[in-house]
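## tool: complex_structure
## caller: assistant
## args:
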Amino acid sequence: MLHESLKQKLIRYAHTSRGYGHPPRVRLESPKTVLGQKIYPRKTMSPSIEWLRKIKGKVLYNELLSKHTSICIGGPADIFIFPRDVEDLNTIYGHKGGMPLFVLGEGTNLLVGDGGIRGIVVCLKEGFKSIQGPEFFRSADGGESAVLKVGSGVKMSYLAKYAARFSLAGIEGLAGVPGSLGGALVMNAGAEGFEIGDVTRNVVRITDAGKMQTLQKGDIEFRYRKTVFPPGDGIIVEAELELRKGDARTIYENIDRYLSRRTVNQPLTLPNSGSVFKNPPGDKAGRLIEAAGLKGFGVGGAAVSVKHANFIVNKGNAKSGDVVRLIEHIRDVVKEKTGTELETEIIVIDG
Ligand SMILES: Cc1cc2nc3c(=O)[nH]c(=O)nc-3n(C[C@H](O)[C@H](O)[C@H](O)COP(=O)(O)OP(=O)(O)OC[C@H]3O[C@@H](n4cnc5c(N)ncnc54)[C@H](O)[C@@H]3O)c2cc1C
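## result:
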């Protein structure tokens, strides 16, 4: 039995032909199978990746996404960049040409295919971590409020506790959401009756065209676990949140209560991607899956959690395909037994 880290090293070595940290000048001519994982031949990357030397942040090649997703699944990204600042993002947009680009937060709402992601993955979790404020002001109703200017790489759990330190209420329900602010804004993350969209004042992004843009709340549509931004996509770099002054003790007590509830109800000791399906109107996806008799049902290394039926857990060696097949099975059985069509909340990225 090979140790997991050695196994990952061998797979990485096979992907790069050279090992860790070298540009992807892949020399594989035909598919190989290394420790059960297929390594597909890839064309040699363009020599124009010289521009990557201008990046101040960390640049990795053939980095396995399984190391950056909470469900611990996902093949290699050709180029994986932790930009340090907006200048790095400008360099990327200025030089990437037609190369596809994917933005990764904390990877807690994703299922990435075993083939990985072609092109560039930009991950903001090492830079973009500043919090400015709070700046207090008197709101229209006479109450006291404050604005926090927050980098998109800041973790929601840290942010909720930071706000609590200043007796600021409005995001305490999100203390147990394990993603970054950037991911929370894209998903309109919510829990315990709180949603990030409710407290968002504006969002700053760098668009596909490489332009900085400030979007006001009115420009953005926050829906249930989905945010609709004006066209332009791009990378969210920061946002301003408007929170109201509350009672610090109550806020801390609520955070404790919300976190304890998660420990009891969610399979936090096994890799997972949170709720797999959105709750259908007036019902709970977990209740429907449990009622369909699927708690504990597994495909390969993936299984429906016995603790919470809307979670799929990686029992140790799950492939992306196992999770995809399990999702399809759950959807079919729930549809057949209850007539309800479940919609996925997690984002599946394959290729
Ligand atoms: C145990 C567990 C519990 C969870 N509980 C909840 C819950 O209670 N409520 C809830 O809503 N969710 C929950 N989730 C899901 C997940 O944590 C949230 O959706 C979270 O907001 C995702 O943030 P992330 O940084 O991990 O984003 P990622 O998963 O990395 O990405 C999600 C999407 O956001 C995009 N993205 C990320 N950062 C940026 C950026 N800076 N700019 C542009 N696009 C970006 C990505 O491209 C992707 O499309 C849970 C997950 C787990 C594992």
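## assistant note: Residues 70, 103-110, 124, 152, 177-180, 182-184, 186-187, 189-191, 225, 235-236, 266, 268, 272-274, 347 surround flavin-adenine dinucleotide (CB under 6 Å). The chain has three domains: 4-123, 131-256, 268-349. Handing back to user.
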